[in-house]
Structure formats: C-alpha cells, structure tokens
Amino acid sequence: MLNEDLLAILACPACKSKVSLVAEKWLVCQNPDCQRKYPIKDDIPIMLIEEGDKYVHVPVERLSEMEP
Questions:
Q1: pLDDT digits (tens, 9 = 90+) for 16-54
Q2: What are the C-alpha distances in Å from 18 to residues 8, 15, 47, 65, 67?
Q3: Phi then psi for 13, rounded to 5 degrees?
Q4: Within 10 A of 13 (CB to CB), how many other CB atoms are there?
Q5: pLDDT of residue 2
Q6: Residues 6+ positions from 68 with CB-CB distance below 8 Å
Q7: Domain boundaries along the sequence of the chain
Q8: Contact predicate 26/37, CB 8 Å
Q9: Who has the most CB within 10 Å: 20, 31, 44, 50?
Q10: pTM for this prediction
Q11: How far apart are CA 27 and CA 68, in angstroms?
C-alpha cells in the first residue's frame, strides 16, 4: 500500500497532473484529457508514460477487476 505522503507528491509523468489511488493497485491521472493509468506492482508505482499509455482506454470502473 502506498504511503499517503508519497501519494501526495506523485504526479502523472505525461501531463504533471495529480494522480489518485484506485483499488490499491492503480494510479489514475486526474486530467480528463490525459486519462493514463499506472499500475502498482509489488508496492512500486510504475510511472512510465509508456506503461500509462497501455491503459488509457480502460474505464476506471474496470481497474478493480484487473491485475496490474
């Protein structure tokens, strides 16, 4: 699980917007024009733009049923 202090300073590497934690295993960019989703694997956020690009079209509601 991500520490609240870490979550407060993380930002989307593509657009620099805030991210929010979803289902304890995804970081979702809050910018509606970006919509990248970054997986958290083994408690490590994978904050690479290329990784976020893979999940751009996945609805946030479906993330809870997906494994990163």
A1: 999 999 999 999 999 999 999 999 999 999 999 999 999
A2: 8, 9, 12, 23, 22
A3: -70, -20
A4: 16
A5: 84
A6: 25, 26, 39, 40, 41, 46
A7: 4-63
A8: yes
A9: 31
A10: 0.93
A11: 11
